[in-house]
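Researcher: If convenient, please comment on what follows.
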Amino acid sequence: LKAVQLLVMLRDGMVWPEGPQEPPRGWMTPDQEQAIVDFVERGGGFFAVHNSTGLYPEGGPYLKLLGGTYNGHGPLERFRVRVLDPAHPITRGVTEYEVADEQHTPVPDEGKVHFLLESRSAGGVTASAGWVREPGRGRVAYLANGHTRDALEHPMYQLLMRNAMRWCLRLER
């Protein structure tokens, strides 16, 4: 991480080396978790997408840095994403949109994060869909969408991703 300014992660915390019939194991070591924390606290940017809250050690430094944990997701469905803070640099220019994706329902640490987005399914499930925090001298942005091509290619989500990376790098102006 010494050679980069921004870490982007779209990955859950498990690997299945023997296939789905075998028990999974975590891929990130405690030293790697701490390296990410140190990177951000020294001023690095961390942009976490979709399942990057999922299946990491509970109470570990990685999830504490991220500011939330995994709580599962519903089926692939269409749902709406609403902007909670239109003045934030990440949501600037973003309007409410509908997307077909897995609606992740992460559990954010409300005392540590600033909420940007909220999702709501047709069945009435409401969840946080994005937040930011600034630990140490660095920046962390999390966006819950990002599993399907429909989500990743949606113009509003494309704008969110660009804005998030620029914000993490302090290039938002």
About this structure: The mean pLDDT is 92. The helical segments are 30-41, 61-66, 149-153, 155-168.
